[in-house]
Amino acid sequence: MKGRDYILPALVFVSMLLALYLVGFYAPIEREQGVVQKIFYFHVPSAWVAFLAFFVVFVFSFRYLVSRDKRWDNRAAAAAEVGVMFCTLVIITGPIWAKPVWGIWWTWDARLTLTLVLWLIYVSYVLLRHYVADAEKRATLSAVLGIIGFIDVPLVYFAIRWWRTQHPQPVIAGGGGSGMDPRMATAFWVSLAAFTVLFVYLYRVRAKQHDLEDEIEQAHQLADELPATGKGD
Amino acid sequence: MTASAVLSCENVAKRFGRTTALRSVTLSVQEGEFVAVFGHNGAGKSTLLNIVATLIRSYEGTVSLFGGDLAKANEETRRSLGFMSHDSFLYADLTAYENLVFYARLYGIRDPSGAVRAMLGRVDLAHKAQSIVRELSRGMKQRLSLGRAFLHSPKLLLLDEPYTGLDETACVNLNNMLSEFTAGGGTVMLTTHDIDRGFRVANRILVLNQGRVVMESRTAEIGLEEFRERYHGILSK
Amino acid sequence: MLRTIATILWKDLRIELRTRDALSASFVFCVLVLVIFNFTLDLGSEEARRLGSGFLWVAFAFGGILSLNRTFALEKADGCSKSLMLAPVDRGAIYLGKFLANVVFMLVTQVLILPLFVVFFNVPAESAVPLLLLIFLLGSIGFSSVGTLFSAMAANTRMRELMLPLLLLPVSIPVLLAAVETTQYALGVNENASDWFKLLIVYDIVFVVASYLGFEFVMEE
């Protein structure tokens, strides 16, 4: 690996360490909820990354349909694969946070429900890719789904929000703005940055893997075309 | 590639994942020609036909159809194409008449019902016009498929293994319709295993092997026996 | 263009008139869903009125998926989708023809189910029928718009029948939610549903356009 290639992993390492330190030792323990509240520093950034990743899938899907360059499909797939992972984290950390604090696992509150729907769309994207054999068909269909899914998200957001105002329920992720201790804010923003950097790093690794898979495929094809050596190769 | 070339392919290649269907195909077909393409299974015959029919959109190389780049094929191009393969392209729950009228309307044929009735007569299915396709025999379905391919009077007719499953009378009928078609200025390109039938009715033959054109000749220049020998020689390599 | 749409619509309607496959499957399925809901949740009449709209649209969604699957299955058979691709017609017109056919099928099922719904759930719906029909129409348009696109997509995969609900249900959440809320309003359960009507209309417009544009890519070989 070149020297340049170490920058991003190093950045991930440093930012994560800093975030963990701030979350663990610098940010105060919340009065009402106790230590459990600190899940917030991972829960919300994961959600942010999940939505960011989906936006990335949308942009790359578009670029693929315009250019038909497989590398854009590789990038969209990479973003989706990493995104679904972070989305799963949100859905797992949500109940872990909710149970000790509010006594219930799940409340169908607006944000969590929206993330769940996003997760479902992600999963359908990943499954679609899994069930289409031909590489080009897979790329085209995924791109269309990536675009349609993304267009859907604002509509889902409004639908769930209006639904929730009509049938109110306790809100899990209450934190975020209202009267937060400045130390908590610092820890939050650093954690957010660390998660974003982590996403970029994981996305790049995955995209590179897809590109390499394509190169191996092409090499195999070229090898198939070589005339037999007559030595029983 | 002269001006009246209906179709010309230059270094056309197509891969499906690991399998290479076509390696490098260069050929040209003139107006009024009747080309029979031979080759063993997997030689790339169907792939070639599907590319020309605009069913496979991505491939390497250049194809020119009716003087224009195939990649830019539009509705007008497709209107001049006729295609027939082992898929019947028929809706099993519609009658013979309804199936043809559907296609007649899609292709913008004036007086769809008149044209359909005439075609049903030509393929000897007038008595089955109101029968549901599901209830037709295999041979009848094939005749109906054929009628569908000819219905809009295409300029270029592409047929993929048209003789498979046809009995003797049906084959003769098909060849008659094809001869009439080329006599009227139409161009035909068909693929087949059937050396005898294909050779007799075509005026040009091509042999594909492992994705390349390995032999090309006018049927007038070579006898059937000689061709059969050379063909088996190619296949056994 | 209009001719193409009409031709495709005519073809699908003709096949359905003859076989009644999609309609009977989706009608029976809707009835089953409603009956099972009634059994598994022993509802009093007040609750039935309040919750009935939800069950109704769940039934419509699943019935709709059955008929959506059907309309594309018959294209894949015998290579007919290839012959549509070969035809000198605008791909968008193919989409619109199939989309309209799907809307018709959903609507017919819904109209047939409505009296059963009124009976099973003891819902006083007589005065609301015109409004309900409008809601059925808007909901069917929204559901079928993405549904037609996704069933063409699913037809390309190995797990055709399973893929369609997986793709369609998450994305159709806004239209289903809006349909339920507006139905509740029509039945007198909700007070104000103007936002929901707006959502229905916005969803319909956005996704008919998006699916129309996206269909071109999905139909290629």
Shape of chain B: globular
Give the strand order, joined by hyphens, for the main sheet of chain B: 6-7-8-3-9-10
Task: Show unreliable segments of chain B.
Answer: none
Structural class of chain B: alpha/beta
Helices and strands of chain B, in order, run as EEEHEEHEHHHEHEHEEH
Instruction: Report Rg of chain B.
Output: 18 Å
User: Shape of chain C, please?
Assistant: globular
Per CATH, what is the topology of the largest domain in chain B?
Rossmann fold
CATH superfamily of the largest domain in chain B: P-loop containing nucleotide triphosphate hydrolases
User: For the residues shown, what is the average pLDDT of chain C?
Assistant: 89
CATH architecture grouping of the largest domain in chain B: 3-Layer(aba) Sandwich
For the biggest sheet of chain C, the summary is: none
How many domains would you count in the coordinates of chain B?
2
Contiguous helical run count of chain B: 8
Helix proportion of residues of chain C, in percent? over 70%
User: What portion of the residues of chain C fall into strands of 2 or more residues?
Assistant: under 5%
Label the structural class of chain C: mainly alpha
Q: Could you tell me the mean pLDDT of chain B?
A: 86
Question: In CATH, what is the class of the largest domain in chain B?
Answer: Alpha Beta
Oligomer designation: heterotrimer
Tag the structure with descriptive keywords.
heterotrimer, A: 233 residues, mainly alpha, globular, B: 237 residues, alpha/beta, Rossmann fold, 2 domains, six-stranded mixed β-sheet, 10 strands, 27% strand
Short description, anyone?
The complex is a heterotrimer of chains A (233), B (237) and C (221). Helix content of chain B is 35%, strand content 27%.
